[in-house]
Amino acid sequence: MKILLYILLLIPNFTFAKKIEIDTFLVRKENDLVLLLDKLRNSKENAEIDYNNLNFDEELRAVLNAPGVLDYPFDRLSTMSTIKSPDGVFRVFNWNIEDENQVHSHFCYVVKKGRGGKNQVIKFKEDKFTLGPRPDGMLSPNRWYGGLYYKIVPIKVGRKTMYTMFAYNGGTRSSNKKILDVFWFKGKSLRLGYPIFQDERNEEELHRRVFIEYSEKATISVRYDKGINKIIFDHLVPEVGNLKGMYEYYIPNMEYDAYFWQNNFWNYQADIIVGNDKEKSRRVYSIDEETGEETFEIVPIDFVNPSKDGQVMERDIENNNLTDKEKRKLIKVNEKIKRKQDRLADKNMSKDQKRQLKLIRKQAKKNKNRSAFH
User: Do residues 55 and 92 lie in contact, with contact meaning Cβ atoms separated by under 8 Å?
Assistant: First the structure.
């Protein structure tokens, strides 16, 4: 009995000692990382920058396999990003370097909970050669545009949790970029990009990510307002009208645009009043017949489809003051978006899921045919 009591008394002490051991290890390793990071930040020449960056990268990679990394604060690594997803699924360790020519390079690791208590460490590789300046396809950590992630907003697309990622890219000597992207996991694989960002001009077109490029001289904001569930960002215009498309001359014009989450995608909203979650509007573009110049007007969005899982609710359409033609058009637009989302969902299914879905659709078709004869 005494032996059993002795063992029971030892258990909490052993657990406590193990916890202290882990924390002490991470504290010690954070001290090492701080020294290496400070040395990197004080480097001047390219050869020195590359050498110190390699040392920091190797030390960080070794630390990321340690238990407790997902929860340890790493507060002293103040010149890099160590943000964690709000649901605790993964954490980003992310930094940049600037060479003598003021060109930025970016480095990133994502740490995710793995099986058996081990960390899954995913390394990113910036691709400056084969990727264009604004890649719109699905990417992987091995083909990455580069950036510093500073905000993570989880979203639900159907039953799947995805993550809206906010990033900054130092770009070139003349321009910078803010980036909105999507992280999502398929098994152990991390995918970048998913078609959930509505196009500014074409409400039926969805993008996998958004690049907001602007002049090096300007400062812009791209932020998430949790209270109204919107991504709010500066509207940019060229300094002079004939510089359209030359983003190194784009500056904010004191107006704001936004994305609001609805129908499983981020809906574009133009010219918002910050703090107002009611009024929604779009820019409608046209060509002036006399001057040949492109113009636009801000028009209110009279109806926003309050659908569930992409399905149009007919009773809500009927309760709005719309013409029959406008109602038919809204239904058609939502059906098109739903078909696009269904195709993407089918593409990402496993073989068993596809087989099961095929059987369900076949049975549904039979039931529909039977009902037609009654």
Answer: no
Tokens matching residue 365: 């078709």
Kindly report the three-state secondary structure assignment for every residue of 26-55.
HHHHHHHHHHHHHHHHCCCCHHHHHHHHHH
Global confidence as pTM = 0.73
Question: Are β-strands 175-186 and 90-98 bridged in parallel, bridged antiparallel, or unpaired?
Answer: unpaired
Q: Which of 167, 156, 185 is nearest to 83 (CA)?
A: 167
What pLDDT, on a 0 to 100 scale, did the predictor assign at position 15? 36
H or E element, residue 59: helix 46-63
Average pLDDT, the chain: 81
> How far is the C-alpha of 169 from the C-alpha of 147, rounded, in Å?
5
Residue indicated by tokens 């390394």: 123
Token pair of 332, please?
């058609």
Interacting residues of 122 by C-beta distance below 8 A, sequence separation 6+: 109, 110, 111, 112, 141, 190
Task: Count other Cβ atoms within 10 Å, centred on residue 256.
Answer: 18
Instruction: Detail the DSSP E strand segments found in 239-276.
Output: 250-262, 265-269
> Cβ(209)–Cβ(182) under 8 Å?
yes
- Of the candidates 47, 77, 73, the residue with the CA atom closest to the CA atom of residue 60: 77
Per residue in 222-237, pLDDT (tens digit) is 999 999 999 999 999 9
For range 202-209, the mean pLDDT: 94
**Whole-Å CA distances, 325 to 284, 317, 328:** 19, 12, 5
